[in-house]
Amino acid sequence: MLDLPSENPISQPSSDLDAFCNILLSSKCPGILTGAGLSAASGITTYRGTNGQWLTTNPMEVASLQAFQDNPGRVWAYYHPKRDQCIAAKPNAAHYTLASLSLPSVRSRIFRKLLQPDKPPLYVTQNFDGLCRRALDETLDNAQSPDDRLDPDERDAAHARLIEMHGSCYRFTCTQCKCVKTTAETPLALVFNDHAVIEKAKNGEETIAVEHLPRCGGPEWSGSNRYGRCGGLLRPGIVWFGEIPEGQGEITRILTKVDVLLVVGTSSLVHPAASYATTVKKNGGTVAVFNLAPSQGDDKADFVFYGPCEKTIPDLLEHAEQLLANAE
Question: Could you say which of 130, 150, 244, 263 would form a disulfide bridge with 289 (CB–CB 3.0 to 4.6 Å)?
C-alpha cells in the first residue's frame, strides 16, 4: 500500500562514474525506478523538492479515496489542472535516454550479459504524467536501425516492461459502472474552464456540485445508463495514498532478479517504491541514485550522482559507451 516510511540517516555513497559504469556494463538484469524529478525539466512540478506541491497542500486532502468521497470537487480541482500540465509537457532527454534501453541495438551494446537479451529492463515509474510512455512510443516509432523496428508483439513486450505504478492522468474509472477509459481530451467538464472556481475549490473555499464534474459519457452525457455512458462520476486513474499500486506482482517477480537498480529523480519516501532499493541490496545487487540534491534514499545506495537527471542520465550512457569504445 502507498504509505510514508519513517526517516533514515543519510550515508555517503560513492560518486565514481567509472566504477559504476563498469558494474552497469556487466549487469545481467538491470532495473529502473523513476520519480517526479525525472519530469522536472519537462515543467512538471515535483512534490517534495524546493517548491514541492506537498509543501503547501496536504496530500490526504487531495490524494486519498476518503478525500474523493468527502469532496470529489476538490480532488478534481487539484488533478485536472495537473493533468493539463502533463498533457502540455514534453519528454526530456532523460526520458528519451531511458526509453532507448528498449531498443535491441542499444541493449546489445550496453548490456552484453543480459539473462534475457530479448527483453528491455524493468522500468517502474511513480509518475502519472505519461511522459515515460510517450518517450517510449516516440523512441520505438522513430527507430532507425532495422534491428530496432519491432513487430507488434515486441512492442507490446516493451510496453509491458514499463509499469506506471501510480496510474496515469490519461485514465479514468467510472465509480458507477466501473468502465475504464483513456483519453487526452480536455477539459473533461465545462467547469474546468472557470479557473477562478477551480482555484477556490482546490483550496477548499468553494464546492463544485457532483453533476458538474467529469462523468461517464463525457460533458455531453445524454441520460443513457449504458456501460461506458452511464453518467456516473469519474475518478482520476491515479493511485492514491492507502491504495495498492499497479503492477506489484510483476515488479516483485522481476525485482528479486535485478542486480543493478537505477533510482532516478525520486526522494524514496513513498512505499512500496521506497523499499525497492533495499530489496535489490539484500539480494546482492547495486543501487545508484540520480537526484538533483541529497535525499533520504541515498543511504540505501552504493553510488549517488547529483545534478539534473536530464543531464546525468544521458551522460551516464555516453560514459558507458565511451568505456566500451576504449576497451575495444
Answer: 263
DSSP 217: T
Cα–Cα dist 81/76, whole Å: 9
11-60 confidence digits (pLDDT tens): 579 999 999 999 999 999 999 999 999 999 999 988 766 666 666 778 89
Structural contact between residues 123 and 100, judged by C-beta atoms closer than 8 angstroms = no
**132 has binding-site annotation:** no
What is the tens place of the pLDDT at every residue in 87-102? 999 999 999 999 999 9
Active-site hit among 159, 166, 195, 319? 166
What average pLDDT does the structure give for the chain? 92
> Is 216 flagged in the annotation as binding?
yes
For residue 45, the cross-strand partners are: none
Over range 186-213, report the average pLDDT: 95
177 is in an annotated binding site: yes
Domains, in order of start, for the chain: 1-44+92-166+247-328 (3.40.50.1220), 47-88+167-238 (3.30.1600.10)
- Tracing cell 552484453 back to the chain, one arrives at 112
pTM listed for this prediction = 0.92
Give the span between the Cα atoms of 167 and 235, in whole angstroms: 12
State yes or no: 230 annotated in a binding site. Answer: yes
Annotation says 166 is catalytic: yes
